[in-house]
C-alpha cells in the first residue's frame, strides 16, 4: 500500500512544471531584451513586466503545491513538513511583495531569503529518526528520507545559493544560478514523494 496519497504525487509533480513553465512563458512575453542567464526570475514577476501575471500565477501555484505536498507527506518528520509548507507560503507571499521594476526591495529580498532557507533545510529536517537502510521495526525507510540522500540534496541547494550570491555580486550569471537552485528546491519534494510511494512495508507513521 502506498504510504502517500495520489494527490501528493500530483502536487509534487506539478511544482517544477509550474515553475519552469512560468519562467519560460514569462520570458517569451518579456521579449528579447530579457536575458535569462543574467536577469533574475523576480524581474519577470515585477510590477510592469509584460508577463508578470504568468510568473505571479506560477509562484502562487508553486506555493500551493508545496503546502499540499507537506500536508500529505506523512512519512516525513514533522519539522521537515513544516519547513516545506513554510517555503510554499513564502512563494505565495512573493505575489504580495513583488520585486520593483528597478532597484531592490527589502521586503521582497527578505521573503526570498526566508523561503530559500526553509526549502534548503527541509530535506534534512524531514529525515525520519533512526532511518538508515533499515528503519525502526525492520521496515525499509524511503530513500528520500534517509540521511545520505537528504544531506546531498540540501548540500546542493546551499551550494546553489552560494553560487547565486556570487553571481549576483561578482559574475553576470545570477539568472542561471537562480534557475538551477529553484529547480532543485521544486524537484526534491517529488523525489521524496516517489520514494515514499515506492516504499514497501507496514503502515507509515509521521515522526
UniProtKB/TrEMBL annotation:
This protein's UniProt keywords: Membrane, Transmembrane, Transmembrane helix
Organism: Streptomyces salyersiae
Highest taxon in the source lineage: Bacteria
Segments traversing the membrane: 51-73, 80-97, 109-127, 148-170
InterPro entries assigned to the protein according to its UniProt record, in alphabetical order: DUF998
The protein, known as: DUF998 domain-containing protein
One Pfam family from the record: DUF998
Amino acid at each position: 500500500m502506498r504510504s502517500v496519497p495520489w494527490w501528493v504525487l500530483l502536487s509534487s509533480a506539478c511544482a517544477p512544471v509550474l515553475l519552469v513553465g512560468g519562467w519560460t512563458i514569462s520570458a517569451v512575453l518579456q521579449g528579447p531584451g530579457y536575458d535569462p542567464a543574467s536577469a533574475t526570475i523576480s524581474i519577470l514577476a515585477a510590477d510592469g513586466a509584460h508577463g508578470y501575471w504568468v510568473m505571479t500565477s506560477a509562484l502562487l501555484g508553486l506555493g500551493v503545491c508545496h503546502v499540499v505536498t507537506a500536508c500529505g507527506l506523512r512519512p516525513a518528520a514533522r519539522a521537515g513538513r513544516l519547513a516545506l509548507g513554510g517555503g510554499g507560503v513564502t512563494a505565495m507571499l512573493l505575489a504580495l511583495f513583488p520585486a520593483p521594476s528597478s532597484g531592490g526591495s527589502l521586503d521582497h529580498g527578505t521573503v526570498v531569503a526566508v523561503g530559500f532557507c526553509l526549502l534548503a533545510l527541509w530535506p534534512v529536517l524531514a529525515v525520519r529518526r533512526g532511518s538508515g537502510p533499515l528503519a525502526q521495526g525492520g521496515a525499509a525507510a524511503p530513500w528520500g528520507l534517509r540521511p545520505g540522500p537528504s544531506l546531498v540534496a540540501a548540500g546542493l541547494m546551499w551550494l546553489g545559493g552560494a553560487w547565486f550570491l556570487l553571481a549576483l555580486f561578482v559574475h553576470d550569471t545570477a539568472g542561471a544560478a537562480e534557475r538551477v537552485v529553484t529547480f532543485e528546491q521544486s524537484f526534491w519534494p517529488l523525489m521524496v514523494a516517489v520514494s515514499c510511494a515506492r516504499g514497501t512495508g507496514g503502515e507509515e507513521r509521521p515522526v
